[in-house]
Amino acid sequence: MAYVFKGRLCGLICAECREALSDVTVRLYRSRDDQNVTALAVANPKETLKLLSDEEVKAKAGSLLAETKTDADGNFSFTLDEKKQKYGGQAFEVDVYCATVPHRKPSPKAPEPRQFSVTTLQPMWRQAEGGFAAAWDYCIPHRFWCHFRSHFGAWTICGRVRVCDSGAAVGGVRVRAFDVDWLQDDDLGSAVTDGSGHFRIDYATADFKRTIFSPAINIELFGGPDLYFRVETLSGTALLVEPSSRGRQPDRENAGHCFCVELCLTEQPPVTTDPLPVFTAVGGYQYLTGINSTPPGNGLTVGDSRAFFSTLRLNGILSKKLNGNPMEYRFEVATTDPDGQNPVGWTVVAPGQIARTEIGIWEHYAPAFPGDPNPIKTKVYTVNGTAGPNELVASFTADGFVKVPQESNVFGAEGFFQPNGNMIALISPSIAAFGSVNQAGVVAGGSSTAGGQPLANDRHFAIRMKVREQGDVGTGSDAGICQHIAIDNTGYDNVQHHPSWAGFTDPPGVIGVRLLDILELQLNGCAQITNTLNVLFTAAHPNLGAVSLSMTGPGGPYGFTLPAAVAGEQFGTATPGFNVGNLQPCAYIVTLEVQLLLTTGDGVPSDLFDQIAFCKH
């Protein structure tokens, strides 16, 4: 008989700010002889919450009944069996093990995992199909939960923005948090309010302990940050500017790991019907869900682990106006660590780094004659295109912003511009010196590094969009950032193919390495093969996919067994999966096929091929 125990866990930052305990481990322990199970089961969990030491966790390991992970919403489910777990409905202890805490800002050093005990629970089992079922929801009180988060160096500000007089919620504005410091104030981060006016900012200890001398000297003269805030429109127009002295007042000074605040504006900001501009995708990949873009993710696509290359279509929601005024946008890139952390050197994507990009359609209702079957005339609108009878081109500002076309009267001479969400086609080889790897001296069957050149590595970047109102000369406001993307545009030179049979050399900068040869042809020229066949091959690329060898001819196709792959390479001598001596006398063709795990976001490169022929005697 099965006992199904389901539940949901959350933690309180403050009364109006709770977070799901996502991706944590829930552990159930059997009752132990030294416990007063009845007293523990009826106790309020507030009285039984306890942070456990490593020794305490080890001491109870032998009593572990079962464990499982929570999902993104903090939900979990156990199925406890009378035979497998020897469980019969009795009370158990509920613990939570955390490798980290939700929304914790990444840091170079991973925190030490911690575990806490919640309560001893006697589920209220009810009869269900095939057994019994029980449910349990619990939210960790803010005092304990914030203390627990402090062990991970996690700091959080939860708040709400309202209109002072009416109390109406203010959504769609940006809140910036600052810490008063001894030499320069620290920018702790920002967030945009939701429809109910709520916002959340997560930051780390290093964000307010750093100084102009960091990382050599990190210091905070007081225990916690001294907070003050700025509220602004998404284009940067100030709505509320608190002085830094506000952070030295008692209710803001030495803020704890969880801090909740109410901010109010003197009046409601103007409501706009325009959508908010935001960069969300690289080609067809939403970077928040389709790319491992959140540090410490690897920057590759989710599921098929592809790096990006060539020209990348950056897209999302492209609006015509910002705060009711004509909008303009540009992109910036920065290099990051291999895990996507520490972006440095933000640089503007210049017009010369952008390929022709269709950003929308221009429409005009203008029938050429009564009864014209096509009364609506259209043209494509592009960035970096060529103006002509069927194409209009958006212009750039001197500092690299694209001016979004503003035509908005489909019946007038100006026509109507309808954005399609595309922003720019980024020529990714232009954002870094990817270079090439010289393969001179590399032959089929050997490592691609045999010529003395190491295998190339992916490069790692962050990409963000900035927006501003036309006429503004500032750097704009953030409107979407892909924190980490892996890009590889490395070329390979002097890739020489089977000189013993119809040899050739690839053009410089070929996308990957694939080499094929037959040892017997190397040794005996075009001598016929009788009883042995040693097929030599080399495939190399930092994002190497599937590698296969096949042979066609009478009685085929024929297969081979390949040596195991190593990091970025697969090479050596293939073992025929057939008896060479039994092949019919004829001509045969061996084919090497190499997959490269790359994508432009909209397409993938064709597999690489190499072929060689021989005659069987």
Q: Write down the overall mean pLDDT.
A: 91
Q: Ends: how far apart?
A: 69 Å
Low-confidence stretches: 211-222
What can be said about the biggest beta sheet? 7 strands, antiparallel
Oligomeric state of the chains present here: single chain
State the helical fraction: under 10%
User: What percent of residues are in strands?
Assistant: 35-45%
What spatial form do the alpha-carbon principal axes imply? globular
Q: What is the CA-based Rg, rounded?
A: 32 Å
Number of strands: 46
Structural class designation: mainly beta
Total of DSSP H or I helical runs spanning 4+ residues: 6
Number of domains: 4
Order of neighbouring strands in the sheet with most strands: 39-40-43-42-41-44-46
Q: Which SSEs are present, and which pair or pack?
A:
Blueprint: E1 2-14, E2 17-20, E3 25-30, H1 37-42, H2 45-48, E4 50-52, H3 54-59, E5 64-69, E6 75-81, E7 92-98, E8 114-121, E9 126-128, E10 131-140, H4 142-150, E11 154-163, E12 174-179, E13 186-192, E14 198-204, H5 205-209, E15 227-232, E16 238-241, E17 258-265, E18 278-282, E19 285-286, E20 307-308, E21 311-317, E22 321-322, E23 325-335, E24 344-348, E25 354-355, E26 357-365, E27 376-383, E28 391-394, E29 402-403, E30 408-409, E31 415-419, E32 422-427, E33 436-438, E34 459-469, E35 477-487, E36 491-493, E37 496-497, E38 504-505, E39 513-518, H6 519-524, E40 535-540, E41 544-552, E42 558-561, E43 569-576, E44 586-596, E45 598-599, E46 608-616
Parallel strand pairs: 1-10, 11-17, 20-45, 27-28, 33-36
Antiparallel strand pairs: 1-2, 1-6, 3-5, 3-7, 4-8, 7-8, 9-10, 11-14, 12-13, 12-15, 15-16, 18-19, 18-21, 21-32, 22-23, 23-24, 23-29, 23-34, 25-32, 26-27, 26-31, 30-31, 34-35, 37-38, 39-40, 40-43, 41-42, 41-44, 42-43, 44-46
